[in-house]
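Before anything else, study the sequence and fold tokens given here and see whether the fold suits the sequence. Record follows:
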Amino acid sequence: MQGTLNEIDIRSILQLIELGQRTGGLLVEAYRPSTPEEVKQQKSLKTISSQGFAATLSGEFWLVFFVNGEIVYAADGMSRNCSRLQEYLYRRRKEIPPPKLSNSLISPNNDVEYAYLWQLIEHHYLTPAQGRNLIEKMVYETVFDLLSLHQGAFIFEMGMSLDPLLTSLEIAPLVTQMTKEVQQWKQLHPHIKSPQQCIVIPNHKMLQQTLPEKAYKKLSWWADGQTSLRQLSRYLQRDLVTLGRGIYPYVDRGWLQVVEHPSQQQLPLESKLKLQETEQSPHIVCLDDDLTIGKAIESILIDNGYQSTLITNPLKALSLMFEIKPDLILCDIAMPKLEGYEICAMLRHSSAFRHIPIIMLTGKEGFTERIRARMLGATDYLTKPFREQELIFLLEKYVTPPLI
């Protein structure tokens, strides 16, 4: 089962999974409106969406896992480096060890964050009850996001199952509850629109005169323009709607201001061009044991103004990448001795590569391969054979294109 959210909405998808008592995985990726340049590229690649509007996958995605028609876990783009779980555990950060998993814990059917959570339970940093509570919160926020999503694509495939299971949640009451929360959240518009927005204090003096000293200090600490409302809800152990209602009166009076998260802000074109002129061309590493394919990709990259390094030996890849420090990695999946999946997982364990885009290359066009790549931390996925325009279009989603 696959399609777009204009053809079938999230509620209907979840209802079908529940009624069919299906076990499997649901991958949902968000669309964003395409830029004029992307529209031109999409037309050449015939990727304009069938709904009649120009849209591009934004890179924002969610994974929901089901067993017998019930939700057992939900992940998002943040879960691949365990930062989401660490934000939930913020109050216990001093006693909780940082993510460090052995490769044996990262099985094809397990998400990295899920494996880390189980490791914390097995080593008695968390109780099973605390683990279940955390999973419930993750599922709630994921369903909230999905019910708020209007443009996107989805794929559901039966057969995926997490192991071992910790909890399961019935879909119908969960959807009813989260639908109400989405409606309550919309009542905060237009002052507060997105969980990814941040708060700042435009006038410290006025706020300090108005609030008790303790409340003012607390707000000053979090109103840094860097911490999103979603992150703040995790840190403070408050649901998003309660948090939004709490700050709404201050925003309404102008004592607080809601701004876009720095990662969501787009520079004006002139600023982008000036910034681009002062930067070197992005350095792309291509890891592929097939020398012919690797050389062909390297040629495409160089012709389009990128710096490129080809690595054909997967056993030497990790040490070389630490020396090179690339801006993006193209990684073949099927390689002898060390698979691309394993390399991707190892890179994501290092803080140096936690946020570097990793695009997996494979000759198989299958949901299983795609979802496994996502679970192990891959940013995106490209199926061989591909055309030059497809590769360049994908690169430009994640790194600033070079001036040529």
The chain has three domains: 2-183, 188-264, 270-398. Residues 188-264 form one domain. Confidence is low (pLDDT under 50) at residues 42-57, 103-108, 266-278. The longest helix spans residues 128-148.
